[in-house]
Amino acid sequence: MAGREDGNRQQETLAGAGPAWAEELLEHLRPAGRDVRRVVAWLSGAVRGSVALQDAAGKLIAGNRLPLDEDLVTDITAGRIASAAWESRERHLRLVRVEHPSHACVLAVSRETPFDRRASDVVTHTAQVIELLLAARESTAAGHRLRRATSDLRLAILQLLMVEDTVAARRVAAGLWPGLLDADTACVYVVESGPAVRDRIAEECLDSTGEEALVVRCPAMDGHVIVVSPRDATREALRSLVGRHPDLFLGGSVRQSLARTATAYGQAVSALAVARFRPDKTAVYAERTHPERLMDPVALRGWTSRVLRPLDTLPHHTRAELLATNRLGLEFTAVNAAKVLGVSRNTVRARMERVEGLLGTDFADLTVRAVVHLALNTQIGLPDAHLASDTGNPGLRLSDLLSGPAVRTWAQDLLGRLDADARNPRRTLRTWIAAGGNAERAAQTLGVHAQTVREHVRSAEPVLERQLLAAGTDLYEVVLAHLAVGDLDVPDFHRQD
């Protein structure tokens, strides 16, 4: 057996090797051919022998297992010697140290005939190529881990914003993106692409915004990228990105406080539905008249405080958790809300059921969902410290708020848009809402096919300029309009409304 020190290792370059085998070996450094296992297989054929690449622990990385002396392998991986040779009548063995970013490996080559100069050169240069490939693979893996960790951190920040924990969100963001969330308000954008190209589009969003926005791969929708930014320049940067890709769409919210990120996200998704029919494939949420803005703000806050009073007995963190989860759970499906919050869907459902029990409600009723949604979104503007006594008239009911002339006029104008349709979609929509959004039950009541109900509801969406088949703010506003004009009964729950 023979060995040599690290400092004596050959430093020849492949460029000076010359023979055809060197050109073949160089091919393995091209991007399309960078595979350690393929290099080891090539070496086996080039020297007509068996090859094994293993680490210090004996784990086989590539090739075929060979019987090796453990002490000799240890000497090589520990750096005491750089290479070794062993010969017998039946076998000739060469072992070469292969550097690795985290630990050394051993390249072992066994053949029946002695190693000539050519075979020795092939083994030496192949070891150098393997070193390069292992280093490149480690660097690539480290880059993937870093990008994954950064992506997970961005998602965590978004989830904190979704549950209105802006203090924690700013604290987490400050370490990597100083100043990103320093503003009090921001817009939310949703870029829609095909799921297969979503990762590339997310990277382009980062580049387009100069990493001055929170860019998150949506955990609920495989083709969506969510962008949260306080900067006005972000909108034009994203519009330009969408213009360069034929299959992208962009929906944006109006500016909202960071505590209302979930509301802004809902607006962006709503705008995205409009963007699919726009020539420029972009749309911003239309700032329209919302029913709560037509109500007496003091009376509305007082009513909201009374409706949500059963939750006031809970610890502050529990109450905040329930409010945030139910706000998202009413805006989206339980499954999607769970993905956005980073919890299980059973957790979302359990929290919603707990609020149902505290308020004495049944979320299967769309009118109840609309009323609670109104209270929860009004509650965002209330101070954390609740007043000892309600403001406004303690006997004021939601029916009183909805019967105001401004609200009734808004509701009549909105639903009146459907009256011109001879199919009477207004009656279908009213029946569908009363049936909890269930087309089959509504069809039985109307004596028509369930598909007819769905078609009527779907045809009402562009007329009302609101999404109805997906739960959320749009649907709940239409429900409130029905309550305001008296087409549906105001729900009676918790015996306070």
Automatic annotation (TrEMBL):
It holds the Pfam family HTH_30. It comes from the Bacteria. Residues 336-377, 427-469 form the PucR C-terminal helix-turn-helix domain. InterPro entries: CdaR-like_regulators, PucR_C-HTH_dom, PucR_C-HTH_sf. This is Helix-turn-helix domain-containing protein. It comes from Streptomyces violaceus (Streptomyces venezuelae).
